[in-house]
């Protein structure tokens, strides 16, 4: 009788743990679905705003990627990309580059251009580990971004013409989160978490545009406040320590 009771208790424990695991899995899938839905809604709002205010930028957006193309990109980058990143690129595969950049003047890279820039950083890291692992500057918040010059798990989203980027960090520091948006590159010694996710960055950027905090011309799109001619120059003011 003792053995039967013990076996029954173990089975109930197993079922409880299994139910808990299923609940966690369901929660993850629900969270991913929410992330995709949020990005789709943000794109609709952003496209509407662009159509009214900057139709040339809207026309500069490429058609979206297929799931197959995104899976191939993940294979080539050797990482799992955040769901909102994939939802972003399923809608539009970056820009053609014939007008100003969507991200506060920074052009959004196509997946093909994204991989080219990433591969350039990977080659540097492979050729010179000392440079790649050199610690330059600080992370804001402290511990959110790994203190290194090159990390092949930093996926570039934009390019400023001088080897500097906004990108997705899929290998954060202990105080960071996977998928956070950061600055990095040749001149970006201090790294800042610009947003906890690409969705949150798009939401922040859209709010700036909708509130009128922008100035634009044929080849430029900048924030009015803080005053700047290059978005990366004001990242420390916007997202650094108070």
UniProtKB/TrEMBL annotation:
Name under which the protein is recorded: Beta-1 3-glucan biosynthesis protein
TM stretches of this protein: none
Domain called Knr4/Smi1-like: residue spans: 64-207
Superkingdom per UniProt: Bacteria
PANTHER family: CELL WALL ASSEMBLY REGULATOR SMI1
Pfam family, one: SMI1_KNR4
């Amino acid at each position: 009788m003792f053995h039967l009771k013990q076996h029954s208790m173990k089975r109930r424990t197993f079922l409880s743990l299994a139910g808990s695991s299923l609940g966690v899995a369901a929660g993850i899938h629900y969270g991913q679905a929410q992330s995709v839905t949020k990005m789709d809604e943000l794109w609709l709002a952003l496209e509407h705003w662009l159509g009214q205010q900057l139709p040339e930028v809207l026309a500069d957006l490429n058609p979206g990627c297929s799931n197959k193309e995104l899976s191939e990109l993940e294979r080539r980058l050797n990482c799992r990309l955040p769901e909102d990143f994939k939802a972003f690129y399923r809608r539009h595969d970056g820009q053609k580059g014939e007008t100003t950049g969507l991200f506060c003047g920074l052009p959004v890279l196509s997946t093909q251009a994204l991989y080219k820039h990433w591969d350039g950083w990977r080659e540097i890291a492979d050729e010179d580990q000392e440079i790649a692992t050199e610690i330059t500057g600080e992370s804001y918040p402290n511990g959110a971004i790994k203190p290194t010059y090159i990390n092949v798990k930093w996926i570039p989203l934009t390019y400023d013409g001088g080897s500097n980027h906004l990108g997705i960090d899929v290998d954060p520091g202990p105080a960071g989160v996977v998928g956070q948006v950061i600055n990095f590159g040749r001149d970006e010694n201090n790294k800042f978490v610009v947003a906890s996710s690409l969705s949150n960055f798009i939401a922040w950027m859209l709010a700036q545009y909708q509130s009128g905090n922008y100035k634009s011309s044929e080849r430029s799109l900048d924030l009015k406040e803080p005053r700047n001619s290059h978005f990366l120059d004001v990242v420390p003011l916007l997202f650094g320590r108070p």
